[in-house]
Amino acid sequence: MDELELICFKMISAVGAAKSLYMEAILEAKNNNFDKSASLIEEGSKIYVEGHHAHSELIQKLANGETIEFNILLLHAEDQMMSAETIKIMAEEFIELYKKLNLH
Question: What structural domains does the chain harbor?
């Protein structure tokens, strides 16, 4: 496995795990487990940072003048990062909505 593939797999692994935790947080909020939901968002955010660090490695390489070969694996890694970030935002919104619904 070359260096680019390794970085892509680090990104995919970390942000995929984060995305799963964000989804689990929604389910916990749906069941009024807001403390658990908050801890899952926090845990997901910490894991997401690992993917972000891997992504930063690629940005640093570009900044240093290295050429990054575009391939489907890199496209997939970027897509997974963006979807995890979107799901986190949506999860936080769902959690707030469930909190409001729980008050009534």
Answer: 3-102 (1.20.58.80)
Residues 6+ apart with CB under 8 A from 68: 4, 58, 61, 62, 74
- Provide the pLDDT for residue 59: 93
The secondary structure of 60-92 as a DSSP string is: HHHHTT------HHHHHHHHHHHHHHHHHHHHH
Per-residue pLDDT tens digits for 59-70? 999 999 999 988
**Residue 99, number of CB atoms within 10 A of its CB:** 13
Q: How far from 69 is each of 4, 6, 7, 37, CA to CA, in Å?
A: 8, 13, 13, 39
Whole-angstrom distance, CA of residue 89 vs CA of residue 74: 23
76 is catalytic: yes
The residue from 52, 53, 76, 104 that is catalytic is 76
Q: Note the pTM of the prediction, 2 decimals.
A: 0.91
